[in-house]
Specification:
The structure is a homodimer.
Chain A: E1 5-9, H1 18-31, E2 35-37, H2 50-67, E3 70-74, H3 85-97, E4 101-105, H4 131-139, E5 144-146, H5 159-172
Parallel strand pairs in A: 1-2, 1-3, 3-4, 4-5
Amino acid sequence: MSRPRVYLAGPEVFLPDAERLGELKRAVCAAHGLDGVFPLDGEPLAAGPPEALAAAIFERCRAHIVSCDTVIANCTPFRGPSLDAGTAVELGFFLGLGRPVFGYTHVAGDYRDRVTPDGLAVEDFGLADNLMVEGAVRASGGAWIRSQAPPGSSWSWLVAFEACVERAARALGAAAS
Amino acid sequence: MSRPRVYLAGPEVFLPDAERLGELKRAVCAAHGLDGVFPLDGEPLAAGPPEALAAAIFERCRAHIVSCDTVIANCTPFRGPSLDAGTAVELGFFLGLGRPVFGYTHVAGDYRDRVTPDGLAVEDFGLADNLMVEGAVRASGGAWIRSQAPPGSSWSWLVAFEACVERAARALGAAAS
């Protein structure tokens, strides 16, 4: 019987050791009876003009996403007060597919407290990010883990991720190995 | 015959004159034979604890989204180098529903040039934002308008928006009024 498949969304793909981080996340998934699918998985892409390469990367991610039963998204703020933009699109993609969305953040504070005043309304619901993020997770039947990573370890910390994996495995009826 | 419905995604909801901006966008849609649906449309929400209010807003947006044939998303950078996080989730939602996504930005420059160096890889594909954004638009059969708003008019400028409305009306076979 094939194991449930989990898309591993997040900004890890931009790190110098992205492949190693993908390997670690896959190992955590495997220990819980799940197949982790990292965005960079698959055959190396052919060289080409930048726009064609971007389209090929998109297509690879899209194919991974539609092949997965769920997503576990690293929603830690990235280059601003909110999560990585690509991760946000992918999380919405799963919502539209009607599949559960699991998410976590390594910054426990409220979104409101990270926004530099700019004269515009700032959401003030005690949430960690824009309400569409946590709303998507809850409405989809997934789970949301809000935690604070130990100083300096935001990228290597796997505690919140593993908490999501546990919830996802239970929700998908995976058999732990 | 009912007119095609267009969800009007974007950070306008955070502006002091959000309702007026929604009204303007709806008028542009109507002139092209489309029904614009602004995220804030609908009955006023009941007062309640912050998390319940956030959930009610999410649910209202979700209901609007599933009732719409397409989305036109304002993807102008918001509080960072990328688009508003909620807009990104909504754009992905439409992708997952298999409906076309139209998007525009009022900042013509490359994403790469807006990122403060942080030791992580910066996408360098000549795109205006994370490749998942423009990728979603293209893969869905929508259109992407990249333009530079005149100084000081980013919120009131409707030229790029109307270009999207025209494309959407054509794609959906709307009858211009």
